[in-house]
Write a structure and sequence with these properties.
This protein is mainly β and 508 residues long. The protein has a domain of 111 residues. It is built from 9 helices and 24 strands. The strands form 5 sheets. It has an 8-stranded antiparallel beta barrel. Strands 9-12-11 form a 3-stranded mixed β-sheet. Strand 13 and strand 14 form a beta hairpin. Helix 3 runs antiparallel to helix 4. The N terminus is likely disordered.
Length: 508
């Protein structure tokens, strides 16, 4: 299916030029809050960071103070700094951020009339989180519970975008240190998306005549992160699904409740010395679509994959309420086709070291490399006659209010998160302030074959393709007054190799 990629409008200026429209600093003193303008001439630069694994934004601003600003307006922490910039990436409009001063770092005095210091910035919700303890029972679908924690407990007025969860939870925080972000981090691996494919056979109780090992199908696990757009809660599969989410401006099945506000950018094309002008034209004639640098930081790690149980994991469960013991086995080979993947890879590589012609199995890829154990008690929140049943379809007339499906997906969720980091790279591109963590990026990398660098762009079909933005940093460098330039550094990841137009040889 064809992808709908976003590209920048034609640039009339430097491909990553910016103009600082305003920068204000406000002391959070309620009705007595004071707001002052931070002179752009004091600002050497500022960084803004988003992370798919982080529930808050981060950044820093470097100040060269020759007017004794920090003495006239003492920085005590908690101040709100707001930025508004114009950029050559936008034909019209501005981009803005608002972050809290967490601390002052690296203050130096290069001469008697000047001091340089760095203000480290975070989202204000992080401070609220440190002072908030959730002590009430939380109940409902995972998307409802997490949205409530953000809006009710963190008192955040930022938008919350969620995918609908298939399962529900009932939980009483077990410690006095149950901060909202900690609870959300605990709930995310248990999130089963509503669109998740069920196993071919419905969940059954273990039959004594059957093997204790049951194949687990489906997909679980979600990310919760903050971006410039707001808070986001979406499954691994949702982020990997590059098919259209909407038809005629109406949400379809998967995101019927929420809206996945991510974009797919590109193609970004690797820049090299003898790049043919025709290739430049293929990038839209826009130098902002060129990759300045690329570094692959992670590709394959057999030992890590085995120890994390990426290929096969046994889940051991003991129900303290019923005194029942159960085992379930997850195999990646069985679940691969039930997941959405970013690369054009049909299977996952096997690790079969079996000697040829000998009756001896050394297929490491099929053997269990990790065991996970849990103690569960379905009676905790079940006050009706009889014994609580963890299944949602075992007693249709009187079902258990909160069936525990997560036990079937615990291993899969862990393996799914690990699988997404199968390949990681860092690229540097001209500043794109609209890009956010969780977005997808199509990159085209030049083949490194000896006969490839001939001015004709020969695509590396294994390493090229769609990646998820795991982390990004917008680096703004002020050159003079309110003007400057911006670069964006992306840390990308994906679960499979290959590009959609060409088959991958991995796993063959």
């Amino acid at each position: 299916m064809a992808l709908n990629f976003n590209t920048a409008p034609d640039a009339q200026q430097h491909p990553s030029s910016i103009n600082l429209v305003s920068c204000f600093i406000t002391k959070p003193n309620g009705l007595l809050a004071t707001k002052v303008s931070l002179n752009p001439s004091l600002i050497l630069g500022f960084d803004l960071r988003e992370d798919l694994y982080s529930p808050f934004l981060g950044g820093m601003i470097t100040i060269s103070d020759s007017i004794n600003f920090v003495s006239n307006y003492p920085i005590t922490g908690g101040e709100i700094i707001s930025f508004e910039i114009e950029t050559s990436y936008l034909e019209n409009g501005t981009v803005s951020w608002e972050l809290m001063v967490n601390n002052i770092e690296t203050r130096i005095l290069p001469d008697p009339k000047k001091q340089v210091y760095i203000l480290k910035l975070v989202s204000k919700e992080l401070a609220v989180n440190e002072t908030c303890r959730v002590k009430r029972k939380i109940k409902g679908s995972y998307d409802e519970v997490i949205t409530e924690l953000v809006q009710k407990d963190l008192k955040s007025d930022k938008k919350v975008f969620t995918e609908t969860s298939k399962n529900k939870t009932v939980k009483i925080p077990g410690s006095s240190d149950a901060r909202p972000f900690d609870l959300i981090a605990e709930l995310c691996p248990q999130f089963i998306p509503k669109h998740s494919k069920d196993r071919e056979d419905k969940i059954k109780k273990i039959n004594k005549s059957q093997s204790d090992e049951q194949k687990i199908r489906g997909t679980a696990g979600a990310f919760f992160w903050e971006s410039r757009r707001g808070y986001n809660l979406f499954s691994c599969d949702a982020l990997c699904d590059i098919s259209p989410n909407f038809e005629d401006d109406e949400p379809t099945g998967r995101f019927a409740k929420g809206e996945l506000l991510t974009e797919t950018w590109g193609p970004y094309i690797e820049e090299f010395a003898n790049l043919d002008p025709a290739v430049q034209s293929a990038a839209g004639g826009d130098s902002r679509n060129l990759i300045k640098a690329v570094i692959f930081t992670k590709e394959v790690d057999v030992m890590e994959a085995l120890r994390c149980g990426r290929r096969s994991t046994r889940v051991i469960l003991f129900n303290s309420g019923t005194q029942q013991y159960e085992e379930y086995v997850y195999n990646l080979s069985d679940a691969w086709n039930d997941m959405a993947h970013l690369g054009n890879q049909n299977t996952y590589d096997e690790l079969d070291f079996s000697p040829a012609g000998e009756y001896k199995s050394l297929n490491v890829g099929e053997k269990i490399s990790r065991e996970m154990s849990f103690v569960i008690n379905h009676e905790t929140f079940f006050n009706k006659p009889g014994i609580a049943d963890p299944e949602d379809d075992s007693n249709p007339e009187n079902p258990t209010p909160t069936p525990d499906e997560y036990k079937y997906f615990a291993a899969q969720s862990s393996a799914r998160f690990d699988l997404l980091t199968n390949s990681e790279c860092i690229i540097k591109i001209p500043g794109n302030p609209l890009m956010c963590a969780g977005d997808r990026v199509l990159i085209h990398l030049q083949s490194k074959a000896a006969d490839a660098l001939t001015g004709i762009y020969d695509l590396d079909v294994e390493s090229s393709g769609v990646y998820i933005v795991k982390e990004l940093t917008h680096n703004y460098i002020m050159s003079e007054g309110t003007s400057g330039i911006c670069d964006t550094t992306l840390r990308l990841m994906r679960d499979a190799y290959g590009i959609d137009t060409d088959p991958s040889s991995h796993g063959q």
